[in-house]
Specification:
There is one protein chain. By secondary structure, this protein is mostly helical. About 65% of the residues lie in helices and about 5% in strands. It has helices at about 10-25, 30-35, 45-50, 60-70, 80-105, 110-120, 125-135, 155-180, 195-220, 240-270, 285-295, 305-335, 340-370, 390-410, 420-435, 445-465, 470-475, and strands at about 5, 5-10, 140-145, 150, 190, 440-445. Strand 3 and strand 4 (about 150) form a beta hairpin. Helix 4 (about 60-70) runs parallel beside helix 12 and helix 8 (about 155-180) runs parallel beside helix 13. The radius of gyration is 25 Å and the shape is globular. Residues about 140-155 and about 225-235 have low confidence and may be disordered.
Length: about 475
């Protein structure tokens, strides 16, 4: 057998051929985006393909109807507005998926996934967070129905609970469902080892950075009863004195976390070394490389510039619809027995993800019926686990949370990164569990079931949790009081 440097020539030749194929398939980013030397898709054809990409586009007619229902809320019950906005968001989510798949053909899997994650998965969540922050104003009083109740709404505390809920949702519920269903017909599925290790570090840094303000708060003497104005009791700090410490601290932490996130994206998309990327990493799963080669050799259906224009339009339409959705579900907090913590940690994050969930459920029903009726054979199980949701949680923790914190600073809102201990415990426990499950870069259905079960435990415990009153006082908007609620 011919041997070169201890490696059989046949195996060495196959490896070199694969590397050469990868280099040819993965072009320079700008050349790939411009489709240099290749014909491009026409504008009219692109628009036609967008319109006909899914039957769900028929539901786009509900978008102007939902907007009309929102502005005519005096005549419409908020539950009707909620239902219309919820259904109207579904085709926009589907269009985001389609745009993301098309942009992957121009940008490659890594950058395409980042674009899809940023624009698709977090438009609703980020819009929701910004809406809750902007509603913190003097008196913070809202009237949702013409003859309905007027009540004070602690939007900043609800915003914090929603941040925790979004992160926990994308760490436990979504990857748990993906691992459970994806591993049902296969021994185990693979994750990218280098990507999983990077996620472990980033997730731990983000969670522990939120732990420190809570630990600092607990270490201060006399924090149990902060006063709202000048303290009448010697040695008892006031809300103003606490904010004088925690607001600058939170803004500094936000800047540091943003820098960590930017650095992680630079490393992930442009690692050291000539021509290195996560796809040609020695430990990269073979199916990941196959997917990248498939993207490089697939013809797009939409012109890249048309896709970007429609992306921007879709962001605007979906952001506005998401705002009307939030406005329609806020009365639930006042008209039901649901606690503010459960409302923020469980209900709002699930509502923001419900459009993707509805699409997934519809696809599951379609495939199940087709399989039972023998209309089509089931596709072979994928060996690559779907763990994009973990990336989503990291982006929300290291990017969107700091952005909202700095935006609150710019708009003079007293939003800090001081979370109460129960919420911090949820984040630490979720981080520990998901890091433990993915530490070997492999998953199976029982690990997915464990993630789902722990999310159910969190939902159950949160149902009975009413929040830490002293932390709530620190997040009151100007003119608010605990009694006013």
């Amino acid at each position: 057998m011919d041997v070169e440097n201890g490696v059989p020539r046949q195996r060495l030749s196959a490896r070199q051929g694969l590397e050469q194929e990868m280099k040819e398939a993965i072009k320079r980013p700008w050349d790939r985006f411009r489709r240099k030397g290749e014909p491009n898709v026409g504008v009219l054809r692109s628009i036609k393909n967008i319109v006909t990409c899914s039957w769900l586009n028929l539901l786009l007619i509900l978008t102007p109807i939902a907007w009309w229902a929102h502005f005519e809320h005096e005549k419409m019950h908020y539950s009707v507005v909620f239902a219309l906005c919820f259904i109207a968001i579904i085709p926009h989510e589907k269009l985001f998926d389609y745009y993301g798949e098309q942009m992957k053909l121009y940008l490659g899997k890594d950058i395409g996934d980042l674009l899809t994650i940023t624009l698709n998965k977090y438009v609703v969540e980020a819009t929701l967070a910004i809406i809750l922050m902007t509603k913190c104003k003097y008196g913070d009083v809202f009237r949702f129905l013409a003859n309905g109740p007027t009540y004070n709404y602690r939007s900043l505390k609800l915003l914090q609970s929603t941040i925790v809920g979004v992160v926990v949702l994308h760490l436990l519920l979504i990857p748990g469902a993906a691992f459970f269903t994806g591993g049902a017909r296969i021994w185990e599925q693979d994750l990218h080892p280098a990507h999983a290790q990077l996620n472990h570090s980033l997730l731990t840094v983000g969670v522990l950075s939120l732990l420190l303000p809570a630990a600092f708060y607990a270490a201060l003497e006399g924090t149990s009863v902060p006063a709202t104005g000048d303290s009448g009791t010697t040695g008892t700090p006031t809300v103003d004195s606490f904010n004088a410490q925690f607001l600058p601290m939170s803004r500094g932490i936000a800047v540091i976390l943003l820098l960590v996130y930017v650095g992680s994206r630079i490393y992930y998309h442009n690692p050291p070394g000539e021509g290195h990327n996560m796809t040609n990493h020695p430990a990269a799963p073979e199916e990941l490389r196959h997917e990248e080669r498939k993207l490089a050799n697939t013809e797009p259906e939409v012109n890249q510039w048309v896709c970007l224009v429609f992306l921007v339009i879709n962001v605007g339409l979906m952001a506005a619809t998401a705002e009307w959705l939030v406005d329609s579900i806020e009365p639930v907090s006042a008209n039901t027995a649901i606690t503010e913590e459960w409302f923020g940690i469980i209900l709002l994050p699930i509502v923001s993800f419900s459009a993707d969930g509805a699409i997934a459920i519809g696809y599951f029903i379609h495939r199940t019926v087709s399989h039972v009726l023998r209309r089509e054979q089931p596709s072979p199980p994928a060996t690559l686990a779907k763990a994009e949701a973990i990336d989503l949680s990291i982006q929300f923790l290291l990017f969107w949370t700091p952005v909202v914190t700095l935006l609150a600073w710019w708009t003079d809102k007293p939003l800090s990164l001081l979370f109460d201990f129960f919420e911090i415990a949820l984040l630490i426990a979720s981080c520990f569990l998901v890091n433990y499950v993915t530490q070997d870069a492999k998953t199976n259905w029982i690990e997915g079931y464990a993630l789902l079960s722990f999310y159910a435990v969190i939902a159950l415990c949160t149902w009975y949790y009413t929040g830490e009153s002293s932390v709530k006082e620190l997040l009151l908007c100007p003119g608010q009081s605990v009694e006013a609620e």
